Every structure is written in structure tokens, then in C-alpha cells.
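Practice set, problem 2.
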Amino acid sequence: MLHATFQVTGISDLMFGRPVLEAKKDGETHAMKEERLWQRKVPVADDGQCCLNPFCVTNSLVAAAKWLGRKVDGKSGFTGRFQKGTTPGSKVLLYKPDGKKLLSVTIADIDPVLLFVPSDGKRGTGTRVERIFPTLHPEWIARGDVYIWDGKITEQQFRDHLEAVGKFVGWGSMRVENGGINGRFQVDEVTFEKLQG
């Protein structure tokens, strides 16, 4: 088994859209509710550092495998291998560069961006509402890790697929995979450790 640790640098905005399931308060309009709750759309670690759900990494690797369409031994592709043969590690922590050091991204670094979007999240339905999308502007930095159980996913295949995520899939809301322009990144570094298992 391999344990892959990576660092990437964002080259487009990273938008957050975690669902916040809370009813309006008495007399509260939709706009007032959005203003009150938009910060809760951003996942935050216990120490206040903004992060991404670790499953965004493995899910995006599956999407990259579909995009690349590579075959294993000339037969089936990597989609199922990334789906069943990888496990996300810890939360993907977000940083901002400050000279030669990295600082943790906190809610204070996130901008509320107001957009007029389909009410059900699907294009062409006709009904639109204003929603606030918390947004982190480049150059954000993300660090995370993945456990690779499938021996056919070599170090090079992992790197190639992670690079494809950064170009053709992205992370977060309105990402490239869904027809948006957000969540793109370049891969800075990937290191591997061989584990028993």
C-alpha cells in the first residue's frame, strides 16, 4: 500500500457550497438568511482552519480517471480502481502564502460572492435566486493525503490523475467538471511512503 501526500496551488477561485439545512427565522427573507449563514457553507477544522472534505480528493480522482480513459493492461480502465482502491486521508487543509511561509486560511480570508443561480442547482429550470458562495481567491494552497490500496495505481499514475483533476475536474462549487471555471490547481509536490498492508 502507498500513502500519497500532496500539495497543490490554486490557479482559479475555490468556491464553497456545503448545504446548510436551517429554516428561516420569523420575518427573515431569503437574502437575510443567506447573509446570516453563508460562512457555514465553508468546512472548518477544530482549530478554525478552513478545509475541504477529504472525499473531494478521491471523488475527483475517479472523475479524472473517466476523463483520461486510460486502460490497465489494455483492459478495463482506472475509474473503478480509484473508486475502490483509494481511501482519503485527513481533511484537506487550506493555506495562503505569506512570503516563504504558509498561513492557515480562516473565514476572514473568504469573500462572500453573491450570484444569481438556479434555485435547484440545475441549469435551465427557469427559477433563479440570489445565493452567496463563499470564495477563496488564488493563490490558495491545499495539502492532503490519500491511501492507495490498488497496486495498479502506480506513483506515476497517481500524479498524472491528480494533475488531470487540477486541469479538467477541479474542486468545490462551480468547478470545471460541472461546466464552471473554479477549483483549478497546479500540482506542486507529491510524496509517497510505502506501508505494510
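Problem 2, part (b): a different protein.
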Amino acid sequence: MTTAIIAEDEPLMRAQLKRKLAEAWPELEVVAEAENGALALEALEREDPDLMFLDIQMPVMTGIEVARRLAGRCHVVFVTAYDEYAVAAFEQGAVDYLLKPVEADRLAITVERLKGHLGKPAPDLGQIVDQLTQTAAPTKLRWVKASIGANIRLISVQEIAYFQSDEKYTRVVTADSEALIRKPIKELVDELDPELFWQIHRSTLVNVNFIATIGRDFRGQPEIQLRNRDEKLTVSRPFAHLFKQM
């Protein structure tokens, strides 16, 4: 039995990857899941897996730092939202990489490559770690200045449930308030962390941490129920693939 550990700090992403792996590789046993790099190393010592799926950006200890300590103990697939990291990982000798959100077709290719590497010594990732450390991820928006009446409020993006276009303004919706900014959705797409905010409509970006459940509307389109909010957000067809097998 081939065994693996999934290290990913976003519960939704972690569950999605596990489900898709089960479909693409039924014989693979995911023996542990970790929400940060430190827990991933603890699971490594406990389980001694054949494979590790490492999110590059995790709290406590990043996937890069975990890879530095592996010393060829198992094969690694890096999971990332940034093309810069992915290309560097592949060119420098990692078994493979996956871009978020993980697509089934791309995962199938990764599975075949992994099967081809099983039984062979895992590469020492020293060079790739050095390369990835030098690869700077884009600086992402952390705060927005929003208008609430006559006042300006500084809001952390972590508090924002979703952004939605509203004529010439964009609504900034938190768990218990709403505000307006002049920045359009197309600019926010480029400035926000794609691991935190998913575009589900040409006019809507949703914080994945605020997604409670995903259902279907009367047309069969995915529909998101938010945590601490009564309204539901419909996912338009161009973005429905994000939730296809969830």
C-alpha cells in the first residue's frame, strides 16, 4: 500500500485534494493530514510515508521549510497558488507540483508520474529549497480602506466574507457589516491572495474561510451558504468547476 501525507492549512482545500486523490488513485492511503508544517513533520516521523503533498505557504513552518528537513525520506509534490513557485519546483527536480485549485486532469498526470517514481530513491531537495526561497511570491492585499457613511474604516481582508460589484462601487461584506470601496473586482482579483479569495462570478469574490456549505440552486448551479450570513451566493457557470466534485 502506497501511503501519503497531505499538508495544507486550508480545510476546504485539504478536503478537496483528499477527495480527488481518492478518485484518481484509489489504492493510495492518506495516513495523515496536517494544517501546518510543524504538524506535517510530526506526521512524517510517525507515519514514514512514501509521499508528501506539501502546500508551500503554511503557518508555523512553510512547505519549503518542511522539504528542507526531508533529506530524501519521501517523494514530494508541492501544492501552490503561484506559478513562479510551481515552475521552479518542477525545473529543480521535485517530483511534481499542483496549482490551486487542483484540477482532476492535472492531478491524473501527477499520479502517473508518482507511480513511475515509486521504488526509486526520493531526491534530496536541497537545491530546490534554495531556489524556492529566492522566489518571491507577489505581495498580496492585506487591508482595504472602505467608506462607512462619512467615515473611513480599515478592514483586514481576513474579516471580509466577500466582495461584490455594486454599480460604480464594490461592496465589502464582513460577518456583521457592509462598506463600499471604489476598487473594481478585476483589480481585486490580481491583488488578493488566490488561496483565500475565489472568484465565483464576474462580480463576486468569496473568502473560502466563510464558506459553510455548497448546495445547488433551482437551475443546478452551485450555491454557497456563508458562515454568519443569511444570504447565499450563486456560482456562475465559468467558475462552477471550482466546486465540481465537492
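Answer key, part (b): Residues 3-133 form a domain with the Rossmann fold fold (CATH 3.40.50.2300). The chain has two domains: 3-133, 143-243.
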